[in-house]
Design a protein that fits this description.
- This protein is an all-alpha fold.
- The protein contains five helices and two strands.
- The protein has a two-stranded antiparallel ribbon with strand order 1-2.
- α1 packs antiparallel against α4 and α2 packs antiparallel against α3.
- The longest helix is centred in the C-terminal third of the chain and has 30 residues.
């Protein structure tokens, strides 16, 4: 597996999340493989997808008891800031190493999926949150939602 390719190692047994992650990787590969004249357009495609992708996960976290500003949400904001910064640099004619950007994002993404997103997928299943409908089973929610908002990633590594 290259850093920017889908593999079953990235599957989280959450169809909506897995599909979104596969789409992200397709766009990342498209950026990596783009010719000079299409790289900025591919980066813009990736940014649009990533804003929706991270926004989706941020909604899920808030709906299931994560506090705004959790480390998971903070990572999303940081990655988007990097993407917007690189697009701005490219628009100003400054050098941007698109291949390296795609490679580094791929490495980060694999780790992010296997840690923070895996914890989110597990948390959603535990509290009865259906990511397809973005709704929560009220019977399970009463027993499973945290009393205080989670301020970390939801996993044991940073609690």
């Amino acid at each position: 597996m290259t850093a920017a390719s889908w593999s079953e190692d990235l599957a989280l047994d959450n169809p909506r999340m897995d599909t979104t992650h596969e789409e992200f990787l397709v766009l990342l590969e498209s950026l990596r493989d783009a010719g000079e004249d299409e790289r900025l357009a591919r980066l813009d495609d990736l940014i649009g997808h990533t804003e929706a992708h991270f926004g989706q996960e941020d909604r899920w976290m808030r709906a299931t008891g994560f506090a705004p500003g959790s480390c998971h949400e903070t990572q999303h904001a940081q990655v988007l800031a990097v993407l917007h910064d690189q697009a701005g640099r490219a628009r100003r004619g400054e050098p941007v190493d698109f291949s390296r950007l795609a490679q580094e994002l791929g490495v980060w993404f694999a780790h992010h999926v296997q840690t923070m997103d895996a914890a989110l997928a597990f948390h959603c299943s535990q509290v009865g949150f259906d990511t397809s409908t973005e709704s929560i089973d009220p019977q399970r929610a009463r027993a499973a939602l945290p009393e205080q908002p989670l301020t970390h990633c939801g996993g044991t590594a940073c609690s």
